[in-house]
Design a protein that fits this description.
The complex is a heterodimer of chains A (409) and B (376). Chain A is of the alpha/beta class. Chain A has 2 domains: 246 residues, no CATH class; 145 residues, D-Maltodextrin-Binding Protein, domain 2 (3-Layer(aba) Sandwich). Chain A is built from 15 helices and 5 strands. In chain A, strands 2-1-3-4 form a 4-stranded mixed beta sheet, with helices on both faces. In chain B, β1, α3 and β2 form a beta-alpha-beta unit. Chain B is elongated and about 100 Å long. The chains are: A alpha/beta (409), B alpha/beta (376).
Chain lengths: 409, 376
C-alpha cells in the first residue's frame, strides 16, 4: 500500500518536473533542426558545397601560374574540394586566415614557376595551416600537397627525359615542338586524371546515410544528457525518508523501482516529443533528407531510454553532490559519445578505440538504433544494452541498500 | 575597508575549501585530464578518416596497394581477397569505399598509354559520394597517375624519337628528378599551434571550453541548491549575488587549471601566459553568460534544461568539430565561439573583453530593473 503511494508520489513529482522541462526540450530540438538545416545549406555535403577555402598569395601574376590556377578552378576535379582565392599579399592572406575566412593559404615565392620549368625545384611553396580548431582542413592540405607534388614531379620527369633523349638523338630542331606537344598532352591528362577510376555508387541499402546517422546520434546524445535535466528529481531525495520507508516495509528495491518507473516516464516524454517535432520540421523543409521514419525510430529508442535512465540512476546514486553530479554526467556522456561515434563516425578512430567505443553503453545504443532503423541484425547490441541496464540498476540497488543500512547504524 | 577585504578573503577561502573538500568534485574534475591522457595515448595508433577496402591481387596492383598503405595519408586500408568481398564490405558498411585494382591492371595501363587516354582503369565502389570520397580518389589517382605518365612518356619517345630505345634507357632518363623532392613546406602560425596535433585530439580544446561553461552552470546550480537549503539566508540580496558570482569564480578557476593541464597533456598547449590569458577571458565570459541566464530563468529546473540546450548548441555552432556556416551574430552569444577564434587572432581576444563588459552591463541593468520593481 505504502509502496503504491510512494510510486504515485514519484509520478506526481516527475510530472511537475516534466511540465517545466518539455517546452524547453522542444525548443532545443527545434534549434537543432535549424542547425541541421544550416549544415545542409553550408556544410561539406551541400549542393552549394562549402569547400575548403585556400588563399593564394605571391607571384600569381606569372602568366603560367595564373593560367594554371584558372585551369584548376575551371576544369580540375579539385574544384569540388578546394576553393582557391587569390590574395593581394601574404599579409592579407594571413589576416583572412586569422579571421577564419580561409582554412589556410599558399605563399608562392618569386621565380617558383621558373624553378619548376627548368627542373631546379629549389623554390618551395609554403602553405600555412593550423592543425587544431580548423579541423581536418590542415591535415587534408598535407595530403593534397603530396598529391600535387606527385603530379608535378612525374610530369617534369616525362618532359626532361624526353628532352634528353631527343638531344642525344640529334633532334634539336624538334625540341620546342615536341616539348609543347608532350606538355599539352600531360596537362590534358592531369586535368582528366580522375577518369582513371570508374565510380560505382551503391546507394544506402543497408546502414544509415550521413544525415540519418547524425539525427540518430544527436537524439541519443540528447537522451543521455537529459540526466542533467533530471537532476532536480534526484537532489530532493532524502536518506531519512528512505529509511522511514524501509521501516514501513518499502524495501530499497521497491523504492528504486518506483523512482525508476517515474523517471523513465519523464525520459520517454522528454525524448520522444522533441524527436517527433524535429523530424516533422525536417519533413516540412527537406522532405528527402531524412529517410528514417519516426515509426521505426521511436520503438528503437525505448530500450535506449531504459538504459539511459539506469545510467543516470547509477550516477546520481554514486555522486550526490549537486555540482559533481552535473559535471560527471556531462564529462562521461560527452566522452562516451565521442568515442562511440556521436561526433565523428567510429571509423575515424584507431581500431582499439573504436572497439572500446562500440562496447560502451552509448556505442551499444548507437548500434542498436542504427541496426533497428536500417532493419539489420540487432541482437548483439541489444544483449549489450540489456546487460548494461541490469548492471546499472543492480549497482544502484546495492549502493542504496548500503547507504540506508549505514545511516541506520 | 580593511575589515571588509579580510571578510571577503575568509569567505573565498571557505568557499574554495568547501569545494575541494568534496571528494566527488575533485574526482570529477580530475577525470577530465585522465580521460584525455587515455585519448592521447590511443590516438597515436593507426587510423583514418575513411576506411578503404582494397582488392589488389596481381603483382603490379599489389605494388600500388603497398604504396598506398605506406603513404601515410589520412586513409585506413583493409585488404580483401576478392573484388566481391570488397564490394560486399561497402554494402554492409564495414568499409567506406572499395578500390578494385583489376588483375590485368598493368596491361590496362599500357593500353591506355598507347591510346593516350586513361579511362576507367580501376573501379571505386561507394555507398554515397561526398567530399571525403573525392579526396580519397585523388590519393588513389596520385599513385596510379605517375605509372600511367611513365607509359605515356615511353610511347611518346618511341613514336616520335627512337622506336628501338631500350626499357633501361627510358627508365634511366625518366628519373631525372627524385620522386621525393619536396615542392611544398608547411608552416604554422607563430608559436600558436603544436605541429604534431592529431585530428582526434584537435577538438579537445573546444570540448574543454564547452566543459568550462558547463562548470559555471554547475556552480550556479550548486549555489541555487544552497540557497534553497537556506545557507545564504543571513545575507542581504547584494551579498547573495556576490556569493553567486564568487561560487562561479572559484569553480571556473579550478576548471581553468584543469583545462590548461589537459591542453598540456594533449600537447596542444600554447605558451603558458597565452593560455592563462585566454582561459581567464573565457572564464569571465562564461560567468557573465551563466549569470545572465540564471537571472532570467530563476528556477533550477529551467537552468538544467538550458544547460543541456547550451551544451548541444555550443558543440554544433562553435567551431569545436567544424565551422558551421558563416559568422552569424547569434553565435556570439556562446563564449567558446570567441575563445576558439581568439586562438588565432588577438582581435577576438578583444571581443572577449567586450563580451565581459557588455555582460556586466546587462547584469547591472537586470539587477537595477528588479530593484526598481521591488521598491514599487
Amino acid at each position: 500500500m505504502i509502496g503504491r503511494r510512494y510510486l504515485r508520489l514519484q509520478l506526481k513529482r516527475i510530472i511537475r518536473l516534466a511540465v517545466g522541462i518539455i517546452p524547453t526540450a522542444i525548443l532545443l530540438f527545434a534549434c537543432l533542426a535549424i542547425a541541421a538545416v544550416l549544415y545542409l545549406n553550408y556544410g561539406p555535403n551541400a549542393d552549394k558545397c562549402e569547400k575548403i577555402k585556400i588563399g593564394i598569395a605571391g607571384d600569381t601574376q606569372d602568366s603560367y601560374l595564373g593560367m594554371g590556377i584558372l585551369a584548376i578552378q575551371s576544369f580540375d576535379d579539385t574544384r569540388y574540394l578546394v576553393d582557391f582565392i587569390e590574395m593581394d599579399s601574404s599579409k592579407k592572406a594571413q589576416e583572412a586566415f586569422l579571421n577564419g575566412e580561409i582554412a589556410g593559404y599558399l605563399v608562392i615565392p618569386d621565380g617558383f614557376i621558373d624553378s619548376v620549368v627548368y627542373g631546379r625545384n629549389d623554390e618551395k611553396i609554403t602553405y600555412v595551416v593550423s592543425k587544431e580548431q580548423k579541423g581536418l582542413a590542415g591535415m587534408l592540405m598535407d595530403d593534397l600537397s603530396k598529391i600535387a607534388e606527385a603530379l608535378i614531379i612525374c610530369s617534369q620527369n616525362a618532359v626532361y627525359g624526353m628532352q634528353e633523349i631527343l638531344i642525344e638523338n640529334g633532334g634539336e630542331e624538334n625540341y620546342n615542338n615536341y616539348t609543347n606537344e608532350l606538355n599539352l598532352k600531360l596537362i590534358d591528362q592531369v586535368l582528366s586524371r580522375t577518369q582513371l577510376a570508374e565510380v560505382k555508387i551503391l546507394g544506402i541499402s543497408l546502414g544509415l546515410g550521413t544525415m540519418d546517422y547524425y539525427f540518430v546520434a544527436v537524439s541519443l546524445l540528447f537522451c543521455f544528457l537529459l540526466g542533467i535535466c533530471g537532476a532536480p528529481f534526484f537532489w530532493n531525495r532524502r536518506n531519512d525518508l528512505g529509511m522511514l520507508l524501509r521501516q514501513r516495509g518499502v524495501r530499497s528495491f521497491s523504492q528504486i523501482f518506483s523512482e525508476y518507473i517515474a523517471y523513465i516516464l519523464f525520459l520517454l516524454i522528454a525524448t520522444y516529443i522533441p524527436i517527433i517535432v524535429s523530424k516533422r520540421i525536417f519533413e516540412i523543409f527537406f522532405p528527402r533528407v531524412l529517410t528514417i521514419s519516426v515509426g521505426d525510430l521511436l520503438p528503437a529508442m525505448l530500450p535506449v531510454v531504459l538504459l539511459a535512465g539506469a545510467f543516470h540512476f547509477l550516477l546520481f546514486e554514486i555522486v550526490q553532490q549537486t555540482i559533481s553530479s552535473i559535471l560527471v554526467q556531462s564529462v562521461l556522456v560527452t566522452a562516451m559519445g565521442y568515442l562511440s561515434g556521436f561526433m565523428f563516425p567510429a571509423y575515424f578512430f584507431p581500431e582499439r578505440l573504436a572497439e572500446i567505443g562500440r562496447k560502451l553503453p552509448t556505442g551499444c545504443a548507437l548500434r542498436y538504433v542504427s541496426d533497428s532503423v536500417s532493419k539489420t541484425d540487432r541482437f548483439a547490441p541489444m544483449i549489450g544494452m540489456v546487460c548494461y541496464t541490469i548492471l546499472f540498476l543492480g549497482m544502484t540497488l546495492i549502493i542504496r541498500k548500503r547507504r540506508l543500512c549505514g545511516d541506520e547504524r | 575597508m580593511k575589515d571588509k577585504f579580510r571578510r571577503i578573503l575568509v569567505w573565498s577561502r571557505l568557499t574554495e575549501k568547501r569545494l575541494l573538500k568534496k571528494k566527488s568534485y575533485l574526482l570529477t574534475i580530475m577525470l577530465v585530464p585522465v580521460l584525455l591522457l587515455g585519448l592521447r595515448i590511443v590516438s597515436g595508433e593507426d587510423k583514418g578518416i575513411l576506411t578503404v577496402g582494397l582488392y589488389a591481387e596481381s603483382e603490379f596492383a599489389a605494388q600500388i596497394a603497398d604504396e598506398l598503405e605506406n603513404a601515410g595519408t589520412l586513409l585506413k586500408f583493409v585488404r580483401y581477397n576478392s573484388a566481391e568481398d570488397a564490394q560486399e564490405a561497402v554494402k554492409n558498411g564495414t568499409v567506406n569505399t572499395a578500390w578494385i585494382l583489376p588483375d590485368n591492371l598493368e596491361s590496362k595501363m599500357n593500353n591506355a598509354a598507347r591510346k593516350g587516354s586513361a579511362y576507367h582503369i580501376v573501379t571505386v565502389v561507394e555507398r554515397e559520394d561526398d567530399i571525403s570520397q573525392i579526396f580519397a580518389r585523388e590519393i588513389l589517382c596520385s599513385k596510379l597517375f605517375p605509372k600511367y605518365i611513365y607509359g605515356l612518356y615511353c610511347e611518346f619517345v618511341r613514336k616520335r624519337i627512337d622506336p628501338d630505345i631500350s626499357e633501361e634507357e627510358l627508365f634511366e632518363k625518366y628519373h631525372v628528378i627524385e620522386e621525393k623532392t619536396e615542392l611544398f613546406q608547411a608552416e604554422y602560425p607563430n608559436g600558436m599551434i603544436s605541429a604534431d596535433a592529431d585530428y582526434l585530439v584537435a577538438p579537445v580544446r573546444g570540448m574543454l571550453a564547452v566543459w568550462l561553461v558547463l562548470s559555471c552552470f554547475g556552480a550556479v546550480l550548486y549555489y541555487k541548491r544552497d540557497e534553497e537549503q537556506g545557507v545564504y539566508d543571513v545575507y542581504s540580496s547584494q551579498k547573495r549575488f556576490a556569493c553567486l558570482l564568487g561560487t562561479q569564480f572559484f569553480v571556473a578557476l579550478n576548471g581553468c587549471i584543469i583545462c590548461i593541464l589537459s591542453c598540456k597533456i594533449c600537447n596542444i598547449a600554447l605558451n603558458l601566459l597565452h593560455e592563462i590569458a585566454l582561459w581567464g577571458l573565457l572564464a569571465g565570459c562564461s560567468i557573465c553568460f551563466c549569470t545572465i541566464l540564471t537571472m532570467i530563468l530563476g528556477k533550477p529546473e529551467r537552468i538544467c534544461m538550458v544547460t543541456v540546450l547550451s551544451v548541444i548548441m555550443m558543440l554544433v555552432f562553435c567551431p569545436v568539430f567544424m565551422e558551421l556556416g558563416p559568422e552569424w551574430s547569434f553565435k556570439w552569444v556562446f563564449p567558446p565561439y570567441f575563445y576558439l577564434k581568439a586562438l588565432y587572432s588577438s582581435y577576438y581576444a578583444g571581443r572577449m573583453g567586450s563580451y565581459i563588459a557588455i555582460g556586466c552591463a546587462i547584469i547591472f541593468m537586470i539587477r537595477f530593473a528588479f530593484k526598481r520593481q521591488t521598491i514599487r
